[in-house]
Automatic annotation (TrEMBL):
Organism: Paenibacillus oenotherae
InterPro entries, per the entry: CheY-like_superfamily, Homeodomain-like_sf, HptR, HTH_AraC, Sig_transdc_resp-reg_receiver, Tscrpt_reg_AraC-type_HTH
One Pfam match: Response_reg
Entry-linked SMART domains: HTH_ARAC, REC
Coiled-coil regions listed: none
List of residues that carry 4-aspartylphosphate: D54
Localization per record: Cytoplasm
Name of the featured protein: Response regulator
Length: 531
Protein backbone atom coordinates (compact mmCIF):
# COMPACT_ATOMS: atom_id res chain seq x y z
CA UNK A 1 0.00 0.00 0.00
CA UNK A 2 1.54 3.32 -1.11
CA UNK A 3 1.36 6.05 1.55
CA UNK A 4 1.93 9.84 1.54
CA UNK A 5 1.99 12.33 4.46
CA UNK A 6 0.69 15.89 3.88
CA UNK A 7 1.27 18.43 6.68
CA UNK A 8 2.58 21.99 6.87
CA UNK A 9 4.61 21.20 10.04
CA UNK A 10 8.05 19.70 9.23
CA UNK A 11 8.26 17.98 12.58
CA UNK A 12 5.06 16.03 11.86
CA UNK A 13 6.24 14.99 8.40
CA UNK A 14 9.67 13.88 9.58
CA UNK A 15 8.37 12.34 12.78
CA UNK A 16 5.84 10.11 11.04
CA UNK A 17 8.44 9.02 8.51
CA UNK A 18 11.00 8.08 11.20
CA UNK A 19 8.78 6.74 13.97
CA UNK A 20 6.79 4.22 11.89
CA UNK A 21 8.54 1.24 10.25
CA UNK A 22 6.41 1.60 7.14
CA UNK A 23 8.05 -1.11 5.04
CA UNK A 24 7.84 -3.57 7.92
CA UNK A 25 4.07 -3.20 7.98
CA UNK A 26 3.69 -3.53 4.22
CA UNK A 27 3.63 0.15 3.22
CA UNK A 28 5.58 1.89 0.46
CA UNK A 29 6.67 5.40 1.46
CA UNK A 30 6.00 7.90 -1.35
CA UNK A 31 7.13 11.06 0.45
CA UNK A 32 5.51 14.18 1.85
CA UNK A 33 3.88 17.49 0.85
CA UNK A 34 3.59 20.81 2.73
CA UNK A 35 0.09 21.82 1.57
CA UNK A 36 -2.92 20.72 -0.39
CA UNK A 37 -1.91 22.27 -3.71
CA UNK A 38 1.49 20.57 -3.72
CA UNK A 39 -0.10 17.33 -2.53
CA UNK A 40 -2.70 17.35 -5.32
CA UNK A 41 0.00 17.43 -7.98
CA UNK A 42 1.91 14.59 -6.28
CA UNK A 43 -1.29 12.55 -5.85
CA UNK A 44 -2.09 12.83 -9.56
CA UNK A 45 1.48 11.85 -10.45
CA UNK A 46 2.21 9.08 -7.91
CA UNK A 47 -1.29 7.78 -7.14
CA UNK A 48 -0.96 6.90 -3.44
CA UNK A 49 -3.35 4.42 -1.86
CA UNK A 50 -3.38 6.20 1.52
CA UNK A 51 -2.81 9.83 2.47
CA UNK A 52 -2.25 11.09 6.02
CA UNK A 53 -3.41 14.70 5.73
CA UNK A 54 -3.50 17.69 8.09
CA UNK A 55 -6.85 19.37 8.43
CA UNK A 56 -5.48 22.97 8.56
CA UNK A 57 -2.84 24.01 5.96
CA UNK A 58 -2.13 27.13 3.91
CA UNK A 59 -3.29 27.52 0.28
CA UNK A 60 -5.47 24.37 0.41
CA UNK A 61 -6.42 22.60 3.62
CA UNK A 62 -7.04 18.89 4.12
CA UNK A 63 -10.78 19.01 3.64
CA UNK A 64 -10.42 21.03 0.44
CA UNK A 65 -7.83 18.51 -0.77
CA UNK A 66 -10.22 15.60 -0.16
CA UNK A 67 -12.90 17.45 -2.07
CA UNK A 68 -10.54 18.02 -5.04
CA UNK A 69 -9.49 14.36 -5.01
CA UNK A 70 -13.12 13.25 -5.09
CA UNK A 71 -13.92 15.61 -7.97
CA UNK A 72 -11.10 14.04 -10.01
CA UNK A 73 -12.39 10.54 -9.27
CA UNK A 74 -9.13 9.42 -7.67
CA UNK A 75 -9.69 6.37 -5.48
CA UNK A 76 -7.66 6.41 -2.24
CA UNK A 77 -7.95 6.05 1.52
CA UNK A 78 -7.37 9.01 3.86
CA UNK A 79 -6.79 9.68 7.55
CA UNK A 80 -7.22 13.25 8.84
CA UNK A 81 -4.87 14.77 11.44
CA UNK A 82 -6.08 17.86 13.28
CA UNK A 83 -5.23 19.99 16.25
CA UNK A 84 -8.92 20.83 16.65
CA UNK A 85 -11.22 18.55 18.56
CA UNK A 86 -14.35 19.79 16.84
CA UNK A 87 -17.21 17.60 15.71
CA UNK A 88 -17.82 19.75 12.61
CA UNK A 89 -14.36 18.99 11.17
CA UNK A 90 -14.68 15.28 11.89
CA UNK A 91 -18.13 15.18 10.32
CA UNK A 92 -16.97 16.94 7.15
CA UNK A 93 -13.92 14.68 6.90
CA UNK A 94 -16.02 11.52 7.13
CA UNK A 95 -18.51 12.90 4.59
CA UNK A 96 -15.59 13.40 2.19
CA UNK A 97 -14.58 9.77 2.60
CA UNK A 98 -11.94 9.92 5.31
CA UNK A 99 -11.44 6.59 7.11
CA UNK A 100 -10.65 8.21 10.48
CA UNK A 101 -10.01 11.51 12.27
CA UNK A 102 -7.06 11.72 14.73
CA UNK A 103 -5.99 14.56 17.00
CA UNK A 104 -2.45 15.95 17.01
CA UNK A 105 -0.09 14.90 18.30
CA UNK A 106 -1.27 11.38 17.51
CA UNK A 107 -0.63 8.57 19.93
CA UNK A 108 1.70 6.28 17.95
CA UNK A 109 0.05 3.09 19.13
CA UNK A 110 -3.38 4.44 18.24
CA UNK A 111 -2.03 5.83 14.93
CA UNK A 112 -0.53 2.46 13.98
CA UNK A 113 -3.77 0.69 14.87
CA UNK A 114 -5.74 3.05 12.57
CA UNK A 115 -3.47 2.82 9.54
CA UNK A 116 -3.26 -0.98 9.81
CA UNK A 117 -7.04 -1.16 9.98
CA UNK A 118 -7.30 1.11 6.94
CA UNK A 119 -4.73 -1.05 5.14
CA UNK A 120 -6.79 -4.18 5.84
CA UNK A 121 -9.95 -2.46 4.58
CA UNK A 122 -8.07 -1.47 1.42
CA UNK A 123 -6.81 -5.03 0.90
CA UNK A 124 -10.28 -6.49 1.46
CA UNK A 125 -11.79 -4.03 -1.00
CA UNK A 126 -9.13 -4.82 -3.60
CA UNK A 127 -9.76 -8.52 -3.13
CA UNK A 128 -13.47 -8.04 -3.67
CA UNK A 129 -12.83 -5.87 -6.72
CA UNK A 130 -10.58 -8.56 -8.17
CA UNK A 131 -13.21 -11.20 -7.50
CA UNK A 132 -15.77 -9.00 -9.23
CA UNK A 133 -13.46 -8.57 -12.22
CA UNK A 134 -12.82 -12.31 -12.36
CA UNK A 135 -16.48 -13.21 -12.01
CA UNK A 136 -17.93 -10.32 -13.99
CA UNK A 137 -18.47 -12.29 -17.24
CA UNK A 138 -20.18 -15.09 -15.31
CA UNK A 139 -22.37 -12.62 -13.40
CA UNK A 140 -23.40 -10.89 -16.61
CA UNK A 141 -24.12 -14.21 -18.32
CA UNK A 142 -26.22 -15.45 -15.40
CA UNK A 143 -28.23 -12.24 -15.30
CA UNK A 144 -28.89 -12.30 -19.03
CA UNK A 145 -29.69 -16.01 -19.11
CA UNK A 146 -32.10 -15.39 -16.25
CA UNK A 147 -33.85 -12.76 -18.35
CA UNK A 148 -34.04 -15.14 -21.32
CA UNK A 149 -35.45 -17.87 -19.05
CA UNK A 150 -38.27 -15.58 -17.95
CA UNK A 151 -37.13 -14.69 -14.44
CA UNK A 152 -39.60 -12.17 -13.00
CA UNK A 153 -38.28 -9.07 -11.23
CA UNK A 154 -39.35 -5.62 -10.22
CA UNK A 155 -38.32 -2.50 -12.15
CA UNK A 156 -36.16 -1.47 -9.17
CA UNK A 157 -34.35 -4.82 -9.09
CA UNK A 158 -33.78 -4.72 -12.86
CA UNK A 159 -32.39 -1.19 -12.69
CA UNK A 160 -30.09 -2.01 -9.73
CA UNK A 161 -28.64 -5.09 -11.44
CA UNK A 162 -28.12 -3.29 -14.74
CA UNK A 163 -26.36 -0.43 -12.97
CA UNK A 164 -24.24 -2.77 -10.82
CA UNK A 165 -23.14 -4.79 -13.87
CA UNK A 166 -22.70 -1.58 -15.90
CA UNK A 167 -24.83 -2.91 -18.77
CA UNK A 168 -25.86 -0.27 -21.34
CA UNK A 169 -29.49 -1.35 -21.55
CA UNK A 170 -32.74 -0.12 -20.04
CA UNK A 171 -36.19 -1.50 -19.31
CA UNK A 172 -37.86 -0.13 -22.42
CA UNK A 173 -38.87 -1.71 -25.78
CA UNK A 174 -36.54 -4.28 -27.28
CA UNK A 175 -35.79 -6.81 -29.96
CA UNK A 176 -33.63 -9.88 -29.48
CA UNK A 177 -31.48 -11.33 -32.24
CA UNK A 178 -30.04 -14.86 -32.33
CA UNK A 179 -26.98 -15.26 -34.56
CA UNK A 180 -25.81 -18.68 -35.72
CA UNK A 181 -22.40 -19.13 -37.32
CA UNK A 182 -22.51 -20.97 -40.65
CA UNK A 183 -19.43 -23.14 -41.07
CA UNK A 184 -19.85 -23.88 -44.74
CA UNK A 185 -16.33 -25.28 -45.20
CA UNK A 186 -16.27 -27.34 -42.02
CA UNK A 187 -13.18 -25.51 -40.81
CA UNK A 188 -14.46 -24.96 -37.26
CA UNK A 189 -14.68 -28.70 -36.67
CA UNK A 190 -10.92 -28.88 -37.25
CA UNK A 191 -10.10 -26.28 -34.59
CA UNK A 192 -9.07 -27.03 -31.02
CA UNK A 193 -11.31 -25.92 -28.15
CA UNK A 194 -8.92 -23.02 -27.50
CA UNK A 195 -9.09 -21.92 -31.14
CA UNK A 196 -12.88 -22.10 -31.09
CA UNK A 197 -12.90 -19.90 -27.99
CA UNK A 198 -10.72 -17.37 -29.82
CA UNK A 199 -13.17 -17.45 -32.73
CA UNK A 200 -15.96 -16.72 -30.24
CA UNK A 201 -14.05 -13.72 -28.88
CA UNK A 202 -13.44 -12.50 -32.42
CA UNK A 203 -17.13 -12.77 -33.31
CA UNK A 204 -18.06 -10.85 -30.15
CA UNK A 205 -15.60 -8.10 -31.08
CA UNK A 206 -16.94 -7.85 -34.63
CA UNK A 207 -20.51 -7.60 -33.33
CA UNK A 208 -19.41 -4.89 -30.89
CA UNK A 209 -17.61 -2.92 -33.60
CA UNK A 210 -20.51 -3.20 -36.06
CA UNK A 211 -22.97 -1.89 -33.46
CA UNK A 212 -20.58 0.58 -31.81
CA UNK A 213 -22.96 3.48 -32.43
CA UNK A 214 -26.04 1.65 -31.14
CA UNK A 215 -26.38 3.07 -27.60
CA UNK A 216 -28.43 0.46 -25.72
CA UNK A 217 -27.39 -3.13 -26.37
CA UNK A 218 -25.90 -6.20 -24.77
CA UNK A 219 -24.27 -9.21 -26.43
CA UNK A 220 -23.36 -12.63 -25.09
CA UNK A 221 -22.39 -16.03 -26.43
CA UNK A 222 -24.73 -19.00 -26.26
CA UNK A 223 -22.90 -22.23 -27.00
CA UNK A 224 -19.97 -22.44 -29.38
CA UNK A 225 -21.66 -21.04 -32.50
CA UNK A 226 -24.63 -18.96 -31.33
CA UNK A 227 -24.70 -15.39 -30.07
CA UNK A 228 -27.54 -13.42 -28.49
CA UNK A 229 -27.97 -9.68 -29.06
CA UNK A 230 -30.46 -7.59 -27.09
CA UNK A 231 -31.20 -4.17 -28.54
CA UNK A 232 -33.33 -1.52 -26.91
CA UNK A 233 -35.26 -0.05 -29.82
CA UNK A 234 -37.71 2.82 -29.69
CA UNK A 235 -40.05 1.70 -32.45
CA UNK A 236 -40.51 0.65 -36.07
CA UNK A 237 -38.60 3.70 -37.28
CA UNK A 238 -35.35 2.10 -36.10
CA UNK A 239 -36.01 -1.24 -37.81
CA UNK A 240 -34.42 -0.27 -41.17
CA UNK A 241 -31.25 0.80 -39.35
CA UNK A 242 -31.20 -2.46 -37.38
CA UNK A 243 -31.73 -4.49 -40.55
CA UNK A 244 -28.92 -2.65 -42.33
CA UNK A 245 -26.49 -3.15 -39.45
CA UNK A 246 -27.32 -6.86 -39.17
CA UNK A 247 -26.69 -7.31 -42.90
CA UNK A 248 -23.44 -5.39 -42.46
CA UNK A 249 -22.54 -7.73 -39.59
CA UNK A 250 -22.93 -10.77 -41.85
CA UNK A 251 -20.65 -9.11 -44.42
CA UNK A 252 -18.09 -8.20 -41.73
CA UNK A 253 -17.95 -11.77 -40.40
CA UNK A 254 -17.49 -13.08 -43.93
CA UNK A 255 -14.75 -10.59 -44.76
CA UNK A 256 -12.85 -10.90 -41.48
CA UNK A 257 -13.26 -14.53 -40.39
CA UNK A 258 -14.42 -16.16 -43.64
CA UNK A 259 -17.50 -17.39 -41.76
CA UNK A 260 -21.14 -17.08 -42.73
CA UNK A 261 -23.93 -16.23 -40.31
CA UNK A 262 -27.73 -16.37 -40.17
CA UNK A 263 -29.62 -14.08 -37.80
CA UNK A 264 -33.14 -14.52 -36.46
CA UNK A 265 -34.81 -11.34 -35.18
CA UNK A 266 -37.77 -11.26 -32.79
CA UNK A 267 -40.81 -9.11 -33.29
CA UNK A 268 -41.12 -5.86 -31.27
CA UNK A 269 -41.61 -6.22 -27.48
CA UNK A 270 -42.39 -3.41 -25.09
CA UNK A 271 -40.45 -4.24 -21.89
CA UNK A 272 -37.01 -5.72 -21.25
CA UNK A 273 -37.97 -6.45 -17.65
CA UNK A 274 -40.48 -9.24 -18.19
CA UNK A 275 -40.59 -9.84 -21.96
CA UNK A 276 -37.08 -11.07 -22.67
CA UNK A 277 -38.21 -14.70 -22.67
CA UNK A 278 -40.93 -14.33 -25.36
CA UNK A 279 -38.55 -12.12 -27.37
CA UNK A 280 -35.82 -14.77 -27.07
CA UNK A 281 -38.23 -17.54 -28.13
CA UNK A 282 -39.40 -15.41 -31.05
CA UNK A 283 -35.79 -14.96 -32.19
CA UNK A 284 -35.30 -18.75 -32.00
CA UNK A 285 -38.38 -19.30 -34.14
CA UNK A 286 -37.17 -16.74 -36.68
CA UNK A 287 -33.78 -18.46 -36.90
CA UNK A 288 -35.43 -21.84 -37.50
CA UNK A 289 -36.91 -20.43 -40.70
CA UNK A 290 -33.43 -20.72 -42.14
CA UNK A 291 -34.71 -24.11 -43.29
CA UNK A 292 -36.88 -22.25 -45.80
CA UNK A 293 -34.91 -19.05 -46.51
CA UNK A 294 -31.41 -20.49 -46.72
CA UNK A 295 -28.34 -19.50 -44.73
CA UNK A 296 -26.56 -16.14 -44.45
CA UNK A 297 -29.77 -14.15 -44.18
CA UNK A 298 -31.36 -11.79 -41.65
CA UNK A 299 -34.79 -13.23 -40.84
CA UNK A 300 -37.23 -10.87 -39.13
CA UNK A 301 -40.13 -12.76 -37.58
CA UNK A 302 -42.31 -9.79 -38.59
CA UNK A 303 -41.62 -10.61 -42.25
CA UNK A 304 -42.47 -14.29 -41.80
CA UNK A 305 -45.70 -13.46 -39.98
CA UNK A 306 -46.67 -10.93 -42.63
CA UNK A 307 -46.21 -13.56 -45.33
CA UNK A 308 -48.24 -16.14 -43.40
CA UNK A 309 -50.92 -13.75 -42.20
CA UNK A 310 -50.45 -14.12 -38.45
CA UNK A 311 -48.25 -15.27 -35.59
CA UNK A 312 -46.22 -18.31 -36.54
CA UNK A 313 -44.83 -21.19 -34.54
CA UNK A 314 -41.54 -22.98 -35.00
CA UNK A 315 -41.34 -24.72 -38.38
CA UNK A 316 -40.89 -28.46 -38.52
CA UNK A 317 -37.32 -29.12 -39.59
CA UNK A 318 -37.86 -32.63 -40.89
CA UNK A 319 -35.83 -34.38 -43.50
CA UNK A 320 -37.83 -36.09 -46.26
CA UNK A 321 -39.22 -39.49 -45.27
CA UNK A 322 -38.81 -40.98 -48.78
CA UNK A 323 -42.32 -42.43 -48.64
CA UNK A 324 -42.25 -43.34 -52.34
CA UNK A 325 -39.44 -45.83 -51.62
CA UNK A 326 -41.67 -47.41 -48.96
CA UNK A 327 -44.64 -47.58 -51.31
CA UNK A 328 -42.54 -49.05 -54.11
CA UNK A 329 -41.12 -51.73 -51.81
CA UNK A 330 -44.65 -52.82 -50.91
CA UNK A 331 -45.87 -52.68 -54.53
CA UNK A 332 -43.04 -54.83 -55.91
CA UNK A 333 -42.65 -56.95 -52.75
CA UNK A 334 -39.02 -55.85 -52.31
CA UNK A 335 -38.02 -57.13 -48.88
CA UNK A 336 -34.51 -55.66 -49.06
CA UNK A 337 -35.92 -52.29 -50.07
CA UNK A 338 -38.34 -52.38 -47.16
CA UNK A 339 -35.53 -53.21 -44.70
CA UNK A 340 -33.46 -50.31 -46.09
CA UNK A 341 -36.36 -47.89 -45.69
CA UNK A 342 -36.96 -49.00 -42.09
CA UNK A 343 -33.28 -48.49 -41.22
CA UNK A 344 -33.27 -45.02 -42.80
CA UNK A 345 -36.52 -44.08 -41.02
CA UNK A 346 -35.19 -45.16 -37.61
CA UNK A 347 -31.97 -43.21 -38.19
CA UNK A 348 -33.93 -40.10 -39.16
CA UNK A 349 -36.00 -40.24 -35.96
CA UNK A 350 -32.80 -40.44 -33.88
CA UNK A 351 -30.94 -37.70 -35.71
CA UNK A 352 -33.92 -35.34 -35.61
CA UNK A 353 -34.19 -35.75 -31.84
CA UNK A 354 -37.91 -36.49 -32.07
CA UNK A 355 -39.82 -36.87 -28.84
CA UNK A 356 -41.44 -40.20 -27.97
CA UNK A 357 -44.85 -38.92 -29.08
CA UNK A 358 -43.46 -37.56 -32.35
CA UNK A 359 -41.80 -40.88 -33.27
CA UNK A 360 -45.08 -42.72 -32.69
CA UNK A 361 -47.13 -40.16 -34.62
CA UNK A 362 -44.75 -40.24 -37.59
CA UNK A 363 -44.76 -44.05 -37.56
CA UNK A 364 -48.56 -44.14 -37.55
CA UNK A 365 -48.62 -41.66 -40.44
CA UNK A 366 -46.47 -44.04 -42.50
CA UNK A 367 -48.72 -46.97 -41.60
CA UNK A 368 -51.82 -45.07 -42.72
CA UNK A 369 -50.17 -43.90 -45.95
CA UNK A 370 -48.96 -47.37 -46.93
CA UNK A 371 -52.37 -48.85 -46.07
CA UNK A 372 -54.00 -46.44 -48.53
CA UNK A 373 -51.44 -47.58 -51.11
CA UNK A 374 -52.52 -51.18 -50.51
CA UNK A 375 -56.19 -50.23 -51.02
CA UNK A 376 -55.32 -48.45 -54.28
CA UNK A 377 -53.64 -51.66 -55.45
CA UNK A 378 -56.41 -53.93 -54.16
CA UNK A 379 -59.75 -52.04 -53.93
CA UNK A 380 -61.48 -55.02 -52.32
CA UNK A 381 -59.46 -54.48 -49.12
CA UNK A 382 -60.79 -52.38 -46.22
CA UNK A 383 -58.82 -49.85 -44.18
CA UNK A 384 -59.97 -51.13 -40.78
CA UNK A 385 -59.03 -54.70 -41.79
CA UNK A 386 -55.49 -53.74 -42.74
CA UNK A 387 -54.88 -51.24 -39.91
CA UNK A 388 -56.72 -52.34 -36.80
CA UNK A 389 -57.30 -50.56 -33.49
CA UNK A 390 -54.94 -53.09 -31.94
CA UNK A 391 -52.16 -52.07 -34.35
CA UNK A 392 -52.60 -48.42 -33.39
CA UNK A 393 -52.73 -49.19 -29.65
CA UNK A 394 -49.51 -51.18 -29.86
CA UNK A 395 -47.74 -48.29 -31.55
CA UNK A 396 -48.64 -45.84 -28.79
CA UNK A 397 -47.71 -48.26 -25.98
CA UNK A 398 -44.19 -48.92 -27.31
CA UNK A 399 -41.69 -48.28 -24.55
CA UNK A 400 -38.57 -47.73 -26.66
CA UNK A 401 -37.68 -46.68 -30.19
CA UNK A 402 -36.35 -50.17 -30.88
CA UNK A 403 -39.68 -51.66 -29.81
CA UNK A 404 -41.53 -49.16 -31.97
CA UNK A 405 -39.42 -50.07 -35.00
CA UNK A 406 -40.08 -53.78 -34.46
CA UNK A 407 -43.83 -53.13 -34.38
CA UNK A 408 -43.64 -51.00 -37.53
CA UNK A 409 -41.53 -53.65 -39.25
CA UNK A 410 -44.03 -56.36 -38.36
CA UNK A 411 -46.91 -54.32 -39.72
CA UNK A 412 -45.18 -53.45 -43.01
CA UNK A 413 -44.03 -57.00 -43.65
CA UNK A 414 -47.57 -58.20 -42.94
CA UNK A 415 -48.73 -55.96 -45.80
CA UNK A 416 -45.90 -57.13 -48.04
CA UNK A 417 -46.82 -60.78 -47.42
CA UNK A 418 -50.48 -60.00 -48.11
CA UNK A 419 -49.48 -58.41 -51.42
CA UNK A 420 -47.48 -61.51 -52.34
CA UNK A 421 -50.42 -63.80 -51.55
CA UNK A 422 -52.90 -61.71 -53.51
CA UNK A 423 -50.71 -61.83 -56.57
CA UNK A 424 -50.60 -65.61 -56.59
CA UNK A 425 -54.25 -65.96 -57.58
CA UNK A 426 -56.42 -65.08 -60.59
CA UNK A 427 -55.53 -62.05 -62.62
CA UNK A 428 -52.86 -61.17 -60.12
CA UNK A 429 -50.97 -64.28 -61.20
CA UNK A 430 -50.92 -62.94 -64.78
CA UNK A 431 -49.56 -59.62 -63.60
CA UNK A 432 -47.02 -61.44 -61.46
CA UNK A 433 -45.75 -63.31 -64.53
CA UNK A 434 -45.66 -59.99 -66.36
CA UNK A 435 -43.54 -58.47 -63.62
CA UNK A 436 -41.18 -61.46 -63.54
CA UNK A 437 -40.68 -61.08 -67.30
CA UNK A 438 -40.03 -57.34 -66.98
CA UNK A 439 -37.57 -57.85 -64.13
CA UNK A 440 -35.68 -60.39 -66.23
CA UNK A 441 -35.76 -58.48 -69.53
CA UNK A 442 -35.70 -54.80 -68.47
CA UNK A 443 -32.24 -54.30 -69.98
CA UNK A 444 -33.51 -55.19 -73.44
CA UNK A 445 -35.81 -53.45 -75.89
CA UNK A 446 -39.06 -54.58 -74.29
CA UNK A 447 -42.40 -53.09 -75.37
CA UNK A 448 -45.99 -53.49 -74.33
CA UNK A 449 -46.49 -55.74 -77.37
CA UNK A 450 -43.60 -58.09 -76.53
CA UNK A 451 -44.73 -58.35 -72.91
CA UNK A 452 -48.35 -58.99 -73.91
CA UNK A 453 -47.25 -61.78 -76.26
CA UNK A 454 -45.29 -63.38 -73.40
CA UNK A 455 -48.40 -63.66 -71.19
CA UNK A 456 -50.84 -64.36 -74.06
CA UNK A 457 -52.94 -61.20 -73.65
CA UNK A 458 -53.72 -58.31 -75.95
CA UNK A 459 -51.63 -55.17 -75.27
CA UNK A 460 -54.76 -53.14 -74.48
CA UNK A 461 -56.13 -55.65 -71.97
CA UNK A 462 -52.72 -56.18 -70.37
CA UNK A 463 -52.33 -52.43 -69.94
CA UNK A 464 -55.80 -52.19 -68.35
CA UNK A 465 -55.20 -55.20 -66.07
CA UNK A 466 -51.77 -54.02 -64.96
CA UNK A 467 -53.11 -50.57 -64.01
CA UNK A 468 -55.99 -52.16 -62.08
CA UNK A 469 -53.73 -54.47 -60.04
CA UNK A 470 -50.64 -52.34 -59.57
CA UNK A 471 -52.21 -48.85 -59.56
CA UNK A 472 -49.63 -47.67 -62.10
CA UNK A 473 -48.99 -47.80 -65.82
CA UNK A 474 -46.86 -50.66 -67.13
CA UNK A 475 -44.44 -48.14 -68.66
CA UNK A 476 -43.97 -46.51 -65.25
CA UNK A 477 -43.29 -49.92 -63.72
CA UNK A 478 -40.64 -50.65 -66.35
CA UNK A 479 -39.07 -47.24 -65.71
CA UNK A 480 -39.06 -47.88 -61.94
CA UNK A 481 -37.34 -51.23 -62.37
CA UNK A 482 -34.75 -49.71 -64.69
CA UNK A 483 -34.07 -46.75 -62.38
CA UNK A 484 -33.77 -48.98 -59.29
CA UNK A 485 -31.18 -51.08 -61.09
CA UNK A 486 -29.43 -47.94 -62.29
CA UNK A 487 -29.21 -46.73 -58.69
CA UNK A 488 -27.68 -50.07 -57.73
CA UNK A 489 -25.08 -49.82 -60.49
CA UNK A 490 -24.27 -46.22 -59.56
CA UNK A 491 -23.63 -47.36 -55.99
CA UNK A 492 -21.64 -50.52 -56.76
CA UNK A 493 -19.74 -49.83 -59.99
CA UNK A 494 -17.61 -47.11 -61.54
CA UNK A 495 -19.34 -47.36 -64.91
CA UNK A 496 -20.04 -44.13 -66.72
CA UNK A 497 -23.58 -42.76 -67.01
CA UNK A 498 -24.00 -43.70 -70.67
CA UNK A 499 -22.76 -47.25 -69.93
CA UNK A 500 -25.29 -47.65 -67.10
CA UNK A 501 -28.02 -46.25 -69.35
CA UNK A 502 -27.30 -49.03 -71.86
CA UNK A 503 -27.15 -51.69 -69.13
CA UNK A 504 -30.64 -50.85 -67.89
CA UNK A 505 -32.31 -50.58 -71.28
CA UNK A 506 -31.87 -46.94 -72.39
CA UNK A 507 -30.03 -46.30 -75.64
CA UNK A 508 -30.15 -42.50 -75.21
CA UNK A 509 -28.17 -41.48 -72.10
CA UNK A 510 -29.69 -37.96 -72.12
CA UNK A 511 -33.19 -39.40 -72.05
CA UNK A 512 -32.05 -41.76 -69.28
CA UNK A 513 -30.77 -38.79 -67.24
CA UNK A 514 -34.09 -36.98 -67.63
CA UNK A 515 -36.07 -40.02 -66.49
CA UNK A 516 -33.64 -40.59 -63.60
CA UNK A 517 -33.97 -37.02 -62.36
CA UNK A 518 -37.76 -37.18 -62.66
CA UNK A 519 -37.90 -40.36 -60.54
CA UNK A 520 -35.11 -39.68 -58.04
CA UNK A 521 -35.06 -35.89 -57.85
CA UNK A 522 -31.43 -35.56 -58.94
CA UNK A 523 -29.17 -36.47 -61.87
CA UNK A 524 -27.22 -39.76 -61.91
CA UNK A 525 -23.99 -37.86 -61.22
CA UNK A 526 -25.52 -36.03 -58.26
CA UNK A 527 -26.89 -39.31 -56.90
CA UNK A 528 -23.47 -40.96 -57.12
CA UNK A 529 -21.72 -37.99 -55.49
CA UNK A 530 -24.05 -38.06 -52.47
CA UNK A 531 -23.26 -41.70 -51.71
Amino acid sequence: MKVMVIDDEPIVRKGLQKLIAWEQYGFQWLGTAENGEEALELIEAKRPDLIIVDCKMPHMDGLQLLGAVNERGIALKSVILSGYDEFMYAQQALQLGASDYLLKPPDLERFLEVILRVKKEWEDENRLKQQLRDNYPVMVERFLLGLMAGGRQSPESFREKVEYLKLPIHSGPLRICRLEIEDETGQLDQYTIEDQQLIGFAVMNIIGETFEEWPAKVIFQEGSRRFIMLFNISGMEQVPQLRQLLLQLIDNLKATLKLGATIGVSRHFTSAINECKPAYEAAKIALQYKYYTGANKVIFLDDVEEEQGGVVAAPKEREPLHEEELFMSIRVCNENGLEAWLAAFALLLKEQGCSSHETKTLSLQQMIAVTHTMIEMHPQLQLDELLTAGDIEQIFTAGTLEELMQLLRGFLFKLLTLTQNLRKSGKNAVIERTKVFIQAQYAGNITLETIAAEVFLSPVYLSFLFKQVEAMNITDYIANIRIENAKRLLKTTSSKTYEIANLVGYQDDKYFSRIFKKKVGMTPSEYRNQI
